[in-house]
Amino acid sequence: MAKNPVRVLVTGAAGQIGYALVPMIARGVMLGSDQPVILHLLDIPPAAESLNGVKMELVDAAFPLLKGVVATTDVVEACTGVNIAVMVGGFPRKEGMERKDVMSKNVSIYKSQAFALEKHAAANCKVLVVANPANTNALILKEFAPSIPEKNISCLTRLDHNRALGQISERLNVQVSDVKNVIIWGNHSSSQYPDVNHATVTTPAGEKPVRELVADDAWLNSEFIATVQQRGAAIIKARKLSSALSAASAACDHIRDWVLGTPEGIWVSMGVYSDGSYNVPAGLIYSFPVTTQNGEWKIVQGLGIDEFSRKKLDLTAEELSEEKALAYSCLT
Ligand code: NAD
Ligand code: LMR
């Protein structure tokens, strides 16, 4: 029997991530090739014409799974009845800007959209914040939508996770699908800590630790970390635009794993509300290794954290605490 359509909201849908993301959702990349979807697309009035163009292209693409498109500049209409909300709307960082520079513009958007989601989305709506500063926007959304369970609000660090897998795969000249269990700890910013201490590669001789195969701790502890931390800036420098296709693909990975579950023995990175695990201060949206089952994520527990890692986990937590304070100062 055909499944009922799932309503998926994409805010900022006339932007460049939106343009890459909506066809992926309509093709089943996010929710599966047997899951019909109705897309809710939100943008602001200056982008209304362009948003309508995106809707026209979605119609023209004749996606079999796409059962309807609501393209609107009305936040209430956009949020009504949605089961999944992918929050991309906001102002991206330009060359030479730090992420903090986009803070004041973006947190106030997330405060007002929190109200609309809380009131009009379907019960148990899952929310993914992509727009930067992603962790802090998600935290503001959580705090101003207190009736949405905190387990339903997350931010995107899967792009960083995938970047880390990509760097290891390039370095070892192995398939990216054979690399697993890297971790992104903390903020989706240059303070994040890409950790390979528990990562492995599937080889003909079995699972091997990444550290053993790379056999170059100096590279893993410096250049690798810096490359992943700075990858967003490197893409902006190269494209004069921030990452879009990889961000859209990572957003699909994030929701797909959250809804459909992670495979046995594999964890992924998600920005989620800290419960104090790994001595990360509770009350921040912080990226952790998680497994998912039945639509719920669980932080992977019991991983060893050495002194080098501890410092890095703490540093990115400090930045998030500062961002939280700055966000509140922007809102008053
Ligand atoms: P973009 O400027 O191309 O698109 C953003 C869209 O949001 C625009 O169409 C704009 O009109 C719209 N918008 C602005 N205010 C809005 C509002 N109040 N409601 C609805 N829509 C609104 O930017 P982009 O390249 O698509 O990037 C979007 C965001 O994603 C940026 O904040 C960017 O920094 C962030 N980003 C995050 C990651 C991640 O991994 N977390 C990766 C890449 C980009
Ligand atoms: C990215 O990681 O590519 C985005 O968050 C863009 C940015 O500002 O770094």
UniProtKB/TrEMBL annotation:
It holds the Pfam family Ldh_1_C. Belongs to the LDH/MDH superfamily. MDH type 2 family. The active site is at H188. This is Malate dehydrogenase. One of its GO terms (molecular function) is L-malate dehydrogenase (NAD+) activity. It is an enzyme of class 1 (oxidoreductase). Residues 6-153 form the Lactate/malate dehydrogenase N-terminal domain. NAD(+) binds at G12, A13, A14, G15, Q16, I17, G18, D43, N106, V130, A131, N132. Its EC number is 1.1.1.37. Keywords: NAD, Oxidoreductase, Tricarboxylic acid cycle. Substrate binds at R93, R99, N132, R163. Residues 157-325 form the Lactate/malate dehydrogenase C-terminal domain. The gene is MDH1. CDD domains: MDH_cytoplasmic_cytosolic (cd01336). It comes from Lupinus albus (White lupine). It catalyses: (S)-malate + NAD(+) = oxaloacetate + NADH + H(+). GO terms for biological process: malate metabolic process; tricarboxylic acid cycle. Gene3D superfamilies: Lactate dehydrogenase/glycoside hydrolase, family 4, C-terminal, NAD(P)-binding Rossmann-like Domain.
